Protein backbone atom coordinates (compact mmCIF):
# COMPACT_ATOMS: atom_id res chain seq x y z
CA UNK A 1 0.00 0.00 0.00
CA UNK A 2 1.22 3.43 -0.86
CA UNK A 3 1.63 5.50 2.27
CA UNK A 4 3.44 8.43 0.68
CA UNK A 5 1.06 11.37 1.14
CA UNK A 6 2.44 13.15 -1.90
CA UNK A 7 1.73 10.21 -4.15
CA UNK A 8 -1.66 9.73 -2.62
CA UNK A 9 -2.56 13.29 -3.39
CA UNK A 10 -1.20 13.04 -6.88
CA UNK A 11 -3.20 9.90 -7.49
CA UNK A 12 -6.28 11.68 -6.25
CA UNK A 13 -5.77 14.49 -8.70
CA UNK A 14 -5.30 12.00 -11.48
CA UNK A 15 -8.55 10.25 -10.71
CA UNK A 16 -10.34 13.56 -10.33
CA UNK A 17 -9.22 14.30 -13.85
CA UNK A 18 -11.26 11.49 -15.31
CA UNK A 19 -14.30 13.43 -14.16
CA UNK A 20 -12.95 16.91 -14.03
CA UNK A 21 -11.13 17.74 -17.19
CA UNK A 22 -8.12 19.22 -18.80
CA UNK A 23 -6.31 21.02 -16.06
CA UNK A 24 -6.69 18.37 -13.41
CA UNK A 25 -5.92 15.71 -15.98
CA UNK A 26 -2.55 17.24 -16.58
CA UNK A 27 -1.64 17.60 -12.95
CA UNK A 28 0.09 14.26 -12.55
CA UNK A 29 2.48 15.23 -15.27
CA UNK A 30 2.64 18.79 -14.08
CA UNK A 31 3.66 17.87 -10.56
CA UNK A 32 6.19 15.24 -11.57
CA UNK A 33 7.51 13.39 -8.58
CA UNK A 34 11.20 12.85 -8.05
CA UNK A 35 12.02 9.26 -7.30
CA UNK A 36 9.08 7.80 -9.18
CA UNK A 37 8.76 6.29 -12.62
CA UNK A 38 8.07 9.74 -14.01
CA UNK A 39 11.61 10.77 -14.98
CA UNK A 40 10.50 13.24 -17.59
CA UNK A 41 10.66 16.92 -16.61
CA UNK A 42 7.19 18.25 -16.05
CA UNK A 43 5.40 20.87 -18.14
CA UNK A 44 5.60 23.25 -15.21
CA UNK A 45 8.45 22.86 -12.76
CA UNK A 46 7.45 21.95 -9.20
CA UNK A 47 8.28 25.51 -8.13
CA UNK A 48 6.19 26.97 -10.96
CA UNK A 49 3.30 24.94 -9.58
CA UNK A 50 4.16 25.67 -5.96
CA UNK A 51 4.48 21.98 -5.20
CA UNK A 52 6.13 21.25 -1.87
CA UNK A 53 7.17 17.62 -1.82
CA UNK A 54 8.15 17.89 1.85
CA UNK A 55 4.69 18.78 3.08
CA UNK A 56 2.77 17.18 0.23
CA UNK A 57 0.91 20.42 -0.25
CA UNK A 58 0.71 23.10 -2.89
CA UNK A 59 1.83 26.65 -2.20
CA UNK A 60 1.20 29.88 -4.07
CA UNK A 61 3.93 30.04 -6.71
CA UNK A 62 5.83 33.30 -7.03
CA UNK A 63 5.29 35.31 -10.18
CA UNK A 64 8.34 35.42 -12.46
CA UNK A 65 7.92 39.21 -12.75
CA UNK A 66 6.69 42.16 -10.68
CA UNK A 67 2.99 42.95 -10.36
CA UNK A 68 3.44 46.07 -12.49
CA UNK A 69 5.58 44.36 -15.12
CA UNK A 70 2.71 43.75 -17.55
CA UNK A 71 1.59 47.39 -17.61
CA UNK A 72 0.02 48.97 -19.54
CA UNK A 73 -1.79 45.84 -20.74
CA UNK A 74 -2.53 44.25 -17.36
CA UNK A 75 -2.55 46.68 -14.45
CA UNK A 76 -0.59 46.16 -11.25
CA UNK A 77 -3.56 46.32 -8.87
CA UNK A 78 -5.46 43.64 -10.77
CA UNK A 79 -2.35 41.47 -10.96
CA UNK A 80 -1.71 41.75 -7.22
CA UNK A 81 -5.28 40.98 -6.19
CA UNK A 82 -5.57 38.22 -8.78
CA UNK A 83 -2.40 36.49 -7.65
CA UNK A 84 -2.25 37.16 -3.91
CA UNK A 85 -5.98 36.78 -3.19
CA UNK A 86 -7.73 34.81 -5.92
CA UNK A 87 -4.99 32.36 -6.83
CA UNK A 88 -4.06 31.93 -3.18
CA UNK A 89 -7.67 30.99 -2.49
CA UNK A 90 -7.51 28.13 -4.99
CA UNK A 91 -4.32 26.83 -3.42
CA UNK A 92 -5.94 26.87 0.04
CA UNK A 93 -9.09 25.25 -1.30
CA UNK A 94 -7.14 22.48 -3.02
CA UNK A 95 -5.08 21.66 0.06
CA UNK A 96 -8.19 21.68 2.23
CA UNK A 97 -10.10 19.38 -0.10
CA UNK A 98 -7.21 16.92 -0.33
CA UNK A 99 -6.87 16.88 3.47
CA UNK A 100 -10.61 16.29 3.91
CA UNK A 101 -10.51 13.36 1.49
CA UNK A 102 -7.53 11.93 3.38
CA UNK A 103 -9.59 12.16 6.58
CA UNK A 104 -12.44 10.32 4.90
CA UNK A 105 -10.06 7.57 3.75
CA UNK A 106 -8.67 7.32 7.26
CA UNK A 107 -12.16 6.90 8.68
CA UNK A 108 -12.19 10.14 10.68
CA UNK A 109 -13.90 12.34 8.10
CA UNK A 110 -17.52 12.67 7.08
CA UNK A 111 -17.85 10.14 4.26
CA UNK A 112 -21.15 11.65 3.17
CA UNK A 113 -19.19 14.67 1.93
CA UNK A 114 -17.03 12.78 -0.57
CA UNK A 115 -18.95 14.27 -3.47
CA UNK A 116 -18.48 17.77 -2.12
CA UNK A 117 -14.73 17.42 -1.51
CA UNK A 118 -14.16 15.63 -4.81
CA UNK A 119 -15.80 18.53 -6.62
CA UNK A 120 -13.67 20.91 -4.58
CA UNK A 121 -10.51 19.13 -5.77
CA UNK A 122 -11.58 19.62 -9.38
CA UNK A 123 -12.55 23.26 -8.93
CA UNK A 124 -9.68 24.44 -6.76
CA UNK A 125 -7.10 22.12 -8.31
CA UNK A 126 -7.99 23.33 -11.78
CA UNK A 127 -8.03 26.90 -10.49
CA UNK A 128 -4.54 26.48 -9.11
CA UNK A 129 -3.10 24.83 -12.22
CA UNK A 130 -4.89 27.16 -14.64
CA UNK A 131 -3.52 30.24 -12.92
CA UNK A 132 -0.02 28.76 -12.72
CA UNK A 133 -0.10 28.27 -16.50
CA UNK A 134 -1.61 31.73 -16.99
CA UNK A 135 1.23 33.51 -15.14
CA UNK A 136 4.03 31.50 -16.69
CA UNK A 137 2.85 32.05 -20.26
CA UNK A 138 2.96 35.83 -19.88
CA UNK A 139 6.07 38.01 -19.84
CA UNK A 140 6.73 41.75 -19.82
CA UNK A 141 6.95 43.43 -23.20
CA UNK A 142 5.43 46.83 -23.82
CA UNK A 143 5.70 46.25 -27.55
CA UNK A 144 4.39 42.68 -27.50
CA UNK A 145 6.17 39.42 -28.24
CA UNK A 146 5.50 39.26 -31.95
CA UNK A 147 4.41 35.92 -33.34
CA UNK A 148 5.36 32.30 -32.69
CA UNK A 149 8.34 30.87 -34.53
CA UNK A 150 9.63 27.45 -35.56
CA UNK A 151 7.60 24.23 -35.28
CA UNK A 152 4.99 25.99 -33.14
CA UNK A 153 4.39 28.54 -35.91
CA UNK A 154 4.16 25.67 -38.40
CA UNK A 155 1.54 23.94 -36.26
CA UNK A 156 -0.47 27.16 -35.92
CA UNK A 157 -0.40 27.66 -39.70
CA UNK A 158 -1.36 24.05 -40.38
CA UNK A 159 -4.24 23.86 -37.91
CA UNK A 160 -5.65 27.41 -38.07
CA UNK A 161 -4.50 28.66 -41.48
CA UNK A 162 -2.43 31.53 -40.11
CA UNK A 163 -1.41 33.17 -36.87
CA UNK A 164 -3.94 35.93 -37.50
CA UNK A 165 -6.72 33.37 -37.93
CA UNK A 166 -5.67 31.60 -34.74
CA UNK A 167 -5.56 34.88 -32.83
CA UNK A 168 -9.02 35.88 -34.04
CA UNK A 169 -10.41 32.44 -33.13
CA UNK A 170 -8.76 32.38 -29.69
CA UNK A 171 -9.97 35.88 -28.81
CA UNK A 172 -13.48 35.17 -30.10
CA UNK A 173 -13.66 32.04 -27.97
CA UNK A 174 -12.51 34.05 -24.93
CA UNK A 175 -15.02 36.80 -25.58
CA UNK A 176 -17.83 34.26 -25.99
CA UNK A 177 -17.25 32.40 -22.72
CA UNK A 178 -20.57 32.47 -20.89
CA UNK A 179 -19.95 33.71 -17.36
CA UNK A 180 -16.59 32.92 -15.77
CA UNK A 181 -14.02 30.81 -17.57
CA UNK A 182 -11.10 30.51 -19.93
CA UNK A 183 -10.11 30.21 -23.55
CA UNK A 184 -7.46 27.55 -24.08
CA UNK A 185 -5.06 26.59 -26.82
CA UNK A 186 -4.51 22.88 -26.34
CA UNK A 187 -2.67 20.03 -28.05
CA UNK A 188 -4.62 16.87 -28.83
CA UNK A 189 -2.04 14.08 -28.94
CA UNK A 190 -3.68 11.42 -31.11
CA UNK A 191 -4.06 13.72 -34.10
CA UNK A 192 -1.08 15.86 -33.04
CA UNK A 193 -3.38 18.78 -33.52
CA UNK A 194 -3.89 22.21 -31.95
CA UNK A 195 -7.38 23.14 -30.84
CA UNK A 196 -9.01 26.13 -29.20
CA UNK A 197 -11.56 25.24 -26.55
CA UNK A 198 -13.48 27.13 -23.88
CA UNK A 199 -13.55 26.33 -20.21
CA UNK A 200 -16.31 27.44 -17.88
CA UNK A 201 -15.54 28.16 -14.24
CA UNK A 202 -12.17 26.50 -13.68
CA UNK A 203 -12.82 22.96 -14.81
CA UNK A 204 -15.98 22.62 -16.87
CA UNK A 205 -16.14 21.91 -20.61
CA UNK A 206 -12.58 20.67 -20.68
CA UNK A 207 -11.31 17.98 -23.01
CA UNK A 208 -9.75 14.83 -21.61
CA UNK A 209 -6.21 13.96 -22.59
CA UNK A 210 -5.11 17.24 -24.11
CA UNK A 211 -2.18 19.36 -22.96
CA UNK A 212 -2.93 22.99 -22.14
CA UNK A 213 -0.48 25.23 -23.98
CA UNK A 214 -1.96 28.66 -23.29
CA UNK A 215 -5.00 29.92 -21.43
CA UNK A 216 -6.50 33.34 -20.88
CA UNK A 217 -8.53 33.94 -17.73
CA UNK A 218 -11.77 35.75 -18.55
CA UNK A 219 -13.26 35.77 -15.08
CA UNK A 220 -14.21 39.36 -14.31
CA UNK A 221 -11.61 39.45 -11.52
CA UNK A 222 -8.96 39.23 -14.27
CA UNK A 223 -9.90 42.52 -15.91
CA UNK A 224 -12.73 44.45 -14.29
CA UNK A 225 -10.68 47.09 -12.46
CA UNK A 226 -9.13 48.42 -15.66
CA UNK A 227 -11.46 47.24 -18.40
CA UNK A 228 -14.84 47.05 -16.61
CA UNK A 229 -17.25 45.23 -18.94
CA UNK A 230 -14.95 45.52 -21.97
CA UNK A 231 -13.68 41.96 -21.97
CA UNK A 232 -12.67 42.11 -25.64
CA UNK A 233 -10.34 45.03 -24.93
CA UNK A 234 -8.72 43.06 -22.12
CA UNK A 235 -8.27 39.96 -24.28
CA UNK A 236 -6.78 42.04 -27.08
CA UNK A 237 -4.36 43.65 -24.62
CA UNK A 238 -3.53 40.24 -23.13
CA UNK A 239 -2.29 39.07 -26.54
CA UNK A 240 0.55 41.61 -26.22
CA UNK A 241 1.99 39.89 -23.15
CA UNK A 242 1.79 36.27 -24.28
CA UNK A 243 5.23 34.70 -24.08
CA UNK A 244 5.14 32.67 -27.29
CA UNK A 245 8.55 31.15 -26.63
CA UNK A 246 7.18 29.56 -23.47
CA UNK A 247 4.03 28.39 -25.23
CA UNK A 248 6.22 26.79 -27.90
CA UNK A 249 8.02 24.89 -25.12
CA UNK A 250 4.65 23.55 -23.98
CA UNK A 251 3.99 22.22 -27.48
CA UNK A 252 7.41 20.55 -27.52
CA UNK A 253 6.57 18.97 -24.19
CA UNK A 254 3.18 17.80 -25.45
CA UNK A 255 4.92 16.17 -28.39
CA UNK A 256 7.28 14.32 -26.07
CA UNK A 257 10.32 16.48 -26.70
MN1 LIG B 1 -8.44 34.12 -12.18
Task: Map the helices and strands.
Layout: H1 5-20, H2 22-25, H3 27-30, E1 51-52, E2 57-58, H4 76-106, H5 114-136, H6 150-160, H7 163-175, E3 181-188, E4 193-200, E5 211-217, H8 224-227, H9 231-238, H10 244-254
Antiparallel strand pairs: 1-2, 3-4, 3-5
Manganese (III) ion binds next to helix 4.
Descriptive report:
With 257 residues, this protein is mostly helical. It folds into two domains: 9-136, Helix Hairpins; 141-254, Iron/manganese superoxide dismutase, C-terminal domain (minor pseudopilin epsh fold). The protein has ten helices and five strands; from the N terminus they run αααββααααβββααα. The protein has helices at residues 5-20, 22-25, 27-30, 76-106, 114-136, 150-160, 163-175, 224-227, 231-238, 244-254; strands at 51-52, 57-58, 181-188, 193-200, 211-217. The strands form two sheets. The chain has a three-stranded antiparallel sheet. Strands 1-2 form a two-stranded antiparallel ribbon. Strand 1 (51-52) and strand 2 form a beta hairpin. Helix 4 (76-106) runs antiparallel to helix 5 (114-136). The longest helix has 31 residues, at 76-106. It is globular and about 55 Å long. Residues 1-29 have low confidence and may be disordered. The structure holds manganese (III) ion. Residues 82, 86, 131, 217, 219, 221-222 line the site of manganese (III) ion.
Amino acid sequence: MNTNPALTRRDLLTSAAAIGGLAAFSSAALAGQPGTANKRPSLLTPSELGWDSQTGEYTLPKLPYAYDALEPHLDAQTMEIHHSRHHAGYVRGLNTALAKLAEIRAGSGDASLIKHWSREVSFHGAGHINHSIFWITMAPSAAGHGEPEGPFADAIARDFGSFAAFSTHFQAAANAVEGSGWSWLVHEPTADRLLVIQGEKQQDMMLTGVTPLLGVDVWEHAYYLRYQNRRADYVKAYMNVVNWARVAQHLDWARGK
